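Notebook entry, structure prediction.
Reason for the run: the old model in the group folder had no record of what sequence produced it. Starting over properly, with the input documented here first.
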Amino acid sequence: MALFRYKALSATGESLDGQMEAANADEVIVRLQDQGYLPVEALRADQSGEAISLFSFGKKRELNAAQILQFTQQLATLLGAGQPLDRALGILIELPETADARKVLERIRETVRGGAPLSVALEQQHGLFSRLYVNLVRAGESGGGLDDALRRLADYLERSRELRSRVTNALTYPVFLLGLVFVSVAILLVGVVPQFEALFASLNAELAWYTQAVLWLSSGLRNGWPLILAALLLFAWWLNNRIGDPAWRLAMDARMLANRYAGPLIGRLETARLARTLGTLVGNGVPLLTALNLSGNVLSNRVLANALEAASSEVKSGSGLGYALGRQKVFPRLAVQMIQVGEESGELDTLLIKVADTFDVETRNALDRLLVLLVPALTILMAVIVAAIILSVLLPIYDLTGNLG
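New structure, fully documented this time:
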């Protein structure tokens, strides 16, 4: 038996933290469900819930984000067409191209055939389906509109995926250019500069400081590459450990959010994700406190996540959501004001989705402006560095030939 730490939500949306001895995390989840709680997290006591590793992002999953979206869309379509859940799952089993995906769907169907609701079957898939996903499905089941809940969930997943893809695509080209800068410089220093170094040595030429600096960099890169590689690996190891430190992550997130240029973009991006998640949950009938607890999982910036947690506590005490968020002074004022309007008009879910749409557009425009500035700047940087290296080895040659002439 091992000691596990858990987080769960009560039927009223209250967040619960505690410890429990069990054989594994699945047993903890089952016990919490039997007590009428919604499990959010179950980890061994010697593990950190904040643990994130640079090397964990490449882990293979039985279902990726695209496959989960496709499954959600197809299941919503089949249920909307009047197909029973068991038959709909049987049809979907034949569609995936990978054996892993088919195995997941088979496990879900077998659990449903055993009499369990779909939400329970999804919850038993070892974290493939998020707590937010499971809770939306559970809300659809309790309200008798599972197909409608799945359609809203599919729309939420698609919009979230589009936002992530937009950010990824916006950063891909600048990262490629930056990599091209390092590769070009390395080729020049390793392959081209050494040929001129031998020439200067044979002529016993007196070289300018900038030429000596380039020759020193070339020699250091050629002779000291094992040390450079070791330093890079050591830095990766250090960064991997620091990322897993909650205090360090919080400090870095605070710096990024306070940055004059990156801060507004991060704020809009995170607010769009939060508003769309919260709006989808509330629109599907999930209680506001439960929705707030679940929505915190989509925030990658710990400062904003902590602010949302504090706002959730105020809402629990009777404050309005817009007022509670405004008191944190980290969320965009426009979003706070629109949420207050939604509360006053009784259309909080609709206004939250409008907030998400508004900040999606602002994020896209900000990324476009960033690319307009960043791509030419990196291109000019590459041209300047390459030109400086070439000129540093050519100018001494021109001086030598001029003196000989």
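Summary: Residues 174 and 375 are 6 Å apart (CA to CA).
The old model has been moved to the deprecated folder.
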